[in-house]
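tool_call: predict_structure(chain=1)
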Amino acid sequence: MIIVTILVVLLAINHLFNLRFFVGYAWLDTEYQYALVGLLVPLVFLIFPASSKASLDKVPWYDMLLALAMFCLALYFFGNAEQIIDNGWEMGAPDYMVILGFLLWLLVLEATRRAGGTALFVIVVLISLYPLYASVMPGPISGLSSSLSDTIAYHVFSAESMLGIPLRALANLVIGFLIFGVALTQTGGGKFFIDLAFAALGHVRGGPAKVAIFSSGLMGSMSGSVISNVITTGVMTIPAMRKTGFRPSYAAGVEACASTGGVLMPPIMGSTAFIMAVFLSTPYITIAVAAIIPSVLYYLALFIQIDSYAARNNMPGIPREQLPKLSDTLKEGWHFIAVFILLIVMLVYLQQEVLAPFYATALLIAINQIFSKTRWGMKEFWEFVVASGKLLAEIAAILVGVGLIVGALSITGMAGTLVNDLVYLAGGDILLLLLMGAITSFIMGIGMTVTAAYIFLAIVLAPALVQGGLDPMSVHLFILYWGMVSFITPPVALGAFAAASIAGASPMRTGFEAMRLGSIIYFIPFFFVLDPAFIFHGELSRTAVVLANALVGVLLIASALQGYLVWVGNLHRHPVMGWLARALILIGGLAFATPGGSDLIPFSDWQLALFGLITAGGGILLALYYQKRWKAIAPA
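tool_result:
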C-alpha cells in the first residue's frame, strides 16, 4: 500500500506539473487515468473486507486475487490506450476486449460496493445496465437501447463513463487536496484549530458549542467528509458541551450541523466542489468565492441559535483558567496559518488551483519537521502515507463507480429527454421545478454519497433549471446544498447519528435537533437561485443589498427558532402567545432574507423588507409585552 501510494503521488506530480518523466515523454489522459485505476482501486479489496463479518486480521486469498485481477486488467488497458483511441473501440471493440471489459466492470462494481456501501452499489448496477432496457421504459425515462457488448465497451473505453468527469476531477484536481487534508490532520492541524477555537470562544456563554462551529467548520472544509469531521472534532466538543449543561441530543445536533456546513465552506470545501468545477468548466476558486456568502449565512444562523439557546438557559462558558491561552496556541500552530495563506494566495492570486495543494503540503511538512513539537519520525511518515493511500483508494473506487452512471445516461441520450420532460411536467413553472429539484436532491442524498447524488442531478436536473433561465453556478450549488441536507435530516441523518453515538443520545432525537438547528440550510439555496447576487454574480452594490437584508433575516429566523432575541430577551414568556410571537418573527425574517425583484418573486426588496418589519415588529412587541408582565409578577 505504501509503494502504491507513493507511485500515485509521483504520477500525479509528473502529470500535473507536466514533467514528462524528465525524458520528454507525456502520457495520454486515458493512460494516466487507467494507471490511477489500476493502482488505487485494487487497494479497496485489501482494505475493505467483503462483509462486516469478515476477519480484519488478514486479507483472504480471494481478495488478493481480486486485487491482482483488477491491477492486471487496468494495466492491459493502459498498455493499449493509444490503440483504444485510434480504433474507436468505445463504439465497438473486439470480442476479447469486451470480455476483459466485462470483468473490469464487475470488479469496479464490487469495489464501489465495498467503498461506497450497498445503496450506492444497487443504484450504480441498475443505472449502468440501463442501456440494455432503455427502449422499453416509460416515456419520460426511455432512451436508446444498446447491446451488452456495446454498453460494456462504452463504459470501459470511452471518456464519458469510468474515465469520465468524476475520475478526471480526481486525477486533475482532487488528489492534491486530499493529501493536503491528511497532512494537516497528521501534523496536528485538527488539535490546533480546536485549541484556537477554545482559546477564542470557550469562555463566552455557550462557549463549547461555539467552539464546535468554529473548529468543525475549518476541519470540514479540509476533510470534505461530514462523518470523519464529526468523529475528529466531536470527541472533544461534545463532552465539553455536555459539561456546561447542553443536553446530549442538542450537543450532538450542534456538532452534526457544524460538520455538515464545513463541506460547504471555502477555501477547500469537499471533493464534490472540484467535480463541479469540471462540470462548469470554471476555475475552482470561482466556486469557492461563490460559496462564501451562503456558508457565512449558514454558520451565522447556527451561531445565533446557539447564543440564543445559551442565553435563554443561562449557560456559562468554561472558566478561562481551564482553557488554552490564545498566545500560546498561536505560537505553537502559526505554521498552519502560514500554510493557509500560501494556499489562498496560490488559489486566488496566482490561479494555480491544480498545483497549490502540493506546494502547501510540502511547506506544511517542511515546517513541521523544522519547528513543530509534532515532528515526524519514520513511523509517523508511513502512517501519513498509509492514511493518504486509504483515502485515495476509497474516493477512487466511488468515483469510478459513479462514472458508470454518467456513461449510462450519456449512451442512451436519456439526460436530454429527461430534461425536457421535467420542464414539461413543471409546466414551465421554475419555482415548482426548484421544489422538485430540492426533493429529488434530498432523496438522492439519502441513498448515495453527496458526490454521486450531485453528479447524477448535474446531468439530469441542472440543465432543466438552466434551460428555465436560472444561473448555472446557482443551480449547481443548489443541488450540492440540497444533497447535503440528508446528513442532518431524519430518517437517515448520518451526520447526526454519528454525533449521537459520541454523545450517548437518541439518534432520531438528535436528527430532529440537528434539523431545527440547521434549518437555514433549507432556505439558503433558494436565496441564491432567486438572486445570483448572493454568489457575487452581478453588481457588487446588489450583493451588498441582498447580504444586508439576509443578515437581518437570518438573525430573526435563528432567534425565532430558539425563542430568544438579543436586546429583547425570552420570546416565549406566554405558553400560547409565545408561539405566535415567534411565528411572526420567523415570517418577518424570511421576508427580509428573501431577495425581491425577480420573475419568481413579484415583490421588490423594499416591499419585502417593509412586510418583514411590520410582521417581525409585531412579534417583538408581543414578546416585549409578555416579558414586561412576567417581570411584574416574577418574585424578586
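agent: Residues 378-412 form the longest helix (35 residues). Proceeding to next step.
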